[in-house]
Write a structure and sequence with these properties.
- The chain has 169 residues and is an alpha/beta fold.
- It has one domain: 3-Layer(aba) Sandwich (Rossmann fold), CATH 3.40.50.
- 56% of the residues lie in helices and 13% in strands.
- The chain has helices at 15-26, 33-41, 45-52, 54-69, 86-95, 105-114, 126-141, 155-168, and strands at 5-8, 29-32, 74-77, 97-102, 146-149.
- Strands 2-3-1-4-5 form a 5-stranded parallel beta sheet, with helices on both faces.
- Helix 1 crosses helix 8, helix 2 crosses helix 4 and helix 3 packs across helix 4 (54-69).
- The termini are close together.
- The structure holds shikimate-3-phosphate.
- Residues 11-12, 15, 34, 45, 79-81, 118-120 line the site of shikimate-3-phosphate.
Amino acid sequence: MKKSLILTGMMGVGKSTIGRLLAKKLAVRFIDIDKIIEKQEKKSIKKIFEVFGEAYFRELEEKTTLKLIQNKVSVIALGGGAFINSKIRREILRSCCSIWLNLKIEILIKRYKKNNKRPLLDLKNLESDVKNIFQARKKIYAQSNFKINCDNMKKEEIVQKILKLNESY
Ligand code: S3P
């Protein structure tokens, strides 16, 4: 593997779960950017948003992501908004292999209802918030090297598909 593999897509699509499995198969390091930020700040992402605001988080996200994608070859799970940052996106498109994991909005909404640790989503306006975020981001996610519609796929199938795409890349 010559380039790092970057997983992007909406919150809750499975970037971290798939990334961890993938890294194991490829025997490379797995990096979960949000986890690194939480460790650094000794706070959950939700708490960082609450205490310091989104702009502060986005700065940390940019700094941390740019640093780590230049490091040795790895599998990296981005936060759902990271690829929207043009500096991060440009660097990833230049030097990595990027994969957009996509899921139907209805499936995402079900996942968010089960777990509300996401600062950008308010359960009161969940459906419209998710639709608006997805609408604004889908063209940008689509700039990734590959897109996988994960709707009816098992985790293992998604991992196998990425391994194949990565071989052909
Ligand atoms: C965000 C996604 C989250 C986290 C933050 C913002 C986003 O990561 O970075 O809450 O803007 O989509 P996950 O995609 O891992 O949930």
